[in-house]
Amino acid sequence: MQFSVDTDRCVSCGLCLSDCLPRALGMDEEGHPYIKDERLCMHCHHCLALCPTGAISVDGHNPDASRRILNAW
Asked: Which pTM value belongs to this model?
């Protein structure tokens, strides 16, 4: 499991933490997310998709290389 946070981009909003269904994420003392229990992570990459600043990378996926999905409705 590879989880990294670009601390220069992270705004400590907590969206990734609040929306992690298995509660695998925690916040460090500086307000940046980290994997507190890798066994709980489902590798869904939802935290990467949800991050408003593109600060999270999971399993080597670069958020800047992701295509934006637009709502059809």
From this structure: 0.82
Quick check: 47 and 20 in contact, CB under 8 A? yes
The CATH number of the domain where 53 resides is what?
Answer: 3.30.70.20
List all residues 6 or more positions away from 40 whose beta carbon is below 8 Å from its beta carbon: 22, 23, 24
Residue 71 lies in a domain: no
Q: Which domain holds residue 12?
A: 3-65
Number of domains in the chain: 1
Contact 54, 45 (CB under 8 A): no
Q: Which pLDDT does position 62 carry in this prediction?
A: 83
Are 56 and 33 in contact by the 8 Å Cβ rule? The answer is yes
